[in-house]
From TrEMBL:
<keyword id="KW-0813">Transport</keyword>
<protein>
    <submittedName>
        <fullName>MotA/TolQ/ExbB proton channel family protein</fullName>
    </submittedName>
</protein>
<feature type="transmembrane region" description="Helical">
    <location>
        <begin position="12"/>
        <end position="36"/>
    </location>
</feature>
<dbReference type="GO" id="GO:0017038">
    <property type="term" value="P:protein import"/>
</dbReference>
<keyword id="KW-0472">Membrane</keyword>
<keyword id="KW-1133">Transmembrane helix</keyword>
<feature type="domain" description="MotA/TolQ/ExbB proton channel">
    <location>
        <begin position="75"/>
        <end position="192"/>
    </location>
</feature>
<feature type="transmembrane region" description="Helical">
    <location>
        <begin position="117"/>
        <end position="137"/>
    </location>
</feature>
<keyword id="KW-0812">Transmembrane</keyword>
<dbReference type="InterPro" id="IPR002898">
    <property type="entry name" value="MotA_ExbB_proton_chnl"/>
</dbReference>
<comment type="similarity">
    <text>Belongs to the exbB/tolQ family.</text>
</comment>
<dbReference type="GO" id="GO:0005886">
    <property type="term" value="C:plasma membrane"/>
</dbReference>
<feature type="transmembrane region" description="Helical">
    <location>
        <begin position="157"/>
        <end position="183"/>
    </location>
</feature>
<dbReference type="Pfam" id="PF01618">
    <property type="entry name" value="MotA_ExbB"/>
</dbReference>
<keyword id="KW-1003">Cell membrane</keyword>
<dbReference type="InterPro" id="IPR050790">
    <property type="entry name" value="ExbB/TolQ_transport"/>
</dbReference>
<keyword id="KW-0653">Protein transport</keyword>
């Protein structure tokens, strides 16, 4: 079979290529899972959510919570919890702290798997280079062991098999690094969105003047 013959031609580089293929599948699975997960946490705040925020700022807490409860996703849930805290007349600092704790959990879920993706981006080129070194060693060993005139095809075939691991390592690493940076920046922007929303919600409460003591 052509596939079996080509695979056998890779020699000692074959296990490295197999490992790189496994890493590529893992990286692709992480990226697809993150894209699917982030669909429920858009960076753009919807008009309905803005209306709920305006209701809460005006003191209409129950209608605001009802509107937020219609939205699926972590942002609406976090805002609903903060609005419920305002309705219960909790301190603004305590509401912000609770919001930030819950928001940190959401951010950690979004960043789950990113370290693995980053590791694959750094590890894949090194594995590719390692496979190339092994392949070159095997090619020159075969060249040394050959009796009689040296066939250039023997050396070129070994070099081809060796360099294929470097190419594959780069092919796995480049998309992994790009995906990691995009997802990492996206999580940072999401954190900024959360911080802006809770500040916008609590500004009226924080800015309320302290009532003068009754004489």
């Amino acid at each position: 079979m052509p596939f079996v013959n080509n695979w056998n031609a890779l020699g000692v580089a074959a296990p490295v290529i197999a490992l790189l293929l496994i890493l590529s599948v893992v990286a692709l699975a992480i990226v697809l899972a993150k894209v699917w997960q982030l669909r429920s946490a858009p960076l753009r705040v919807s008009g309905a959510m803005r209306e709920a925020l305006a209701l809460a700022q005006a003191g209409h807490y129950d209608p605001a919570v009802n509107r937020l409860s219609r939205h699926r996703g972590p942002v609406a849930q976090l805002l609903a919890g903060a609005v419920e805290g305002l309705a219960a007349e909790r301190d603004a600092v305590a509401i912000r702290e609770a919001f930030e704790r819950q928001g940190t959990v959401v951010l950690m879920e979004q960043r789950d798997g990113l370290r693995t993706l980053e590791m694959i981006g750094h590890l894949a080129p090194l594995l590719g280079l390692f496979g190339t070194v092994l392949g070159m060693i095997e090619a020159f060993q075969a060249l040394e062991a050959a009796a009689g005139p040296v066939d250039p095809a023997m050396l070129s075939g070994g070099i081809w098999a060796a360099l294929s691991t470097t190419a594959l390592g780069l092919a796995v690493a480049v998309p992994s690094v790009i995906a990691f940076n995009l997802l990492d920046q996206r999580s940072l922007r999401f954190a900024q969105v959360l911080d802006g929303l809770i500040s916008e919600l609590l500004v009226p409460d924080v800015a309320k003047p302290t009532a003068a003591p009754q004489p």
